[in-house]
Amino acid sequence: MKHYFALICVSVVLGMFVGCENDKLPKTVPAEGVVTLDGATVSDATVLLIADVGDINASAVSDKNGKFLLNAFPEKSGAVPGSYKVSISKTINEAASEKKGETMVNLKYGLPQKYSLYTTSGLTYTLGEKGDKNIKFDLQSK
């Protein structure tokens, strides 16, 4: 019984430290949405928001329905309110082949290449103080 009580006490103390660490992080708000290309949802797309001010970015990977949940920190959900430049990329691994004993992997862009860099994507986003659960990134192939 003493060991059980000691284990509970250690768990509570460790939980307090984890909670304190999260308190030091900036405020985050819900940030989720969907990625489409020409109206069709895009799975496995990496969404990256690069902060206009500061160095706290947010990222996510879209699910099979094109939906994503942005996070700025691994230990805390959501993104920090502010203005961002956006890049969205998807890499497709085509069939591998062997050449002289080495495996050759062919990668290709799953989205138009211009979206893979925030400097060429033309995408920006401002996340408000209350968050947003309906972010839409409607990409075009042409």
Description:
There is one protein chain. By secondary structure, the protein is an alpha+beta fold. It has a single domain (28-139), classed as Sandwich (Immunoglobulin-like), CATH 2.60.40. It is built from two helices and ten strands, in the order H-E-E-E-E-E-E-E-E-H-E-E. It has helices spanning 2-23, 118-121; strands at residues 31-37, 40-41, 46-51, 58-61, 67-69, 82-89, 91-99, 102-109, 123-127, 132-139. The strands form three sheets. Strands 1, 2, 5 and 10 form a four-stranded mixed β-sheet that branches. Strands 4-3-6-9 form a four-stranded antiparallel β-sheet. The protein is globular.
Tell me the number of strands: 10
**Number of domains as seen in the coordinates:** 1
> Which CATH top level class fits?
Mainly Beta
The largest sheet, given as strand count, sense and whether it forms a barrel, is:
4 strands, mixed
Q: Provide the β-strand percentage band.
A: 35-45%
The CATH homologous superfamily corresponds to: Immunoglobulins
Percentage of residues in helical conformation: 10-25%
pLDDT averaged over residues: 86
CATH topology: Immunoglobulin-like
Helix-strand topology string = HEEEEEEEEHEE
Which structural category do the helix and sheet elements fall into?
alpha+beta
**Separation of the first and last Cα atoms:** 68 Å
Low-confidence regions: 1-20
Rg over CA atoms: 20 Å
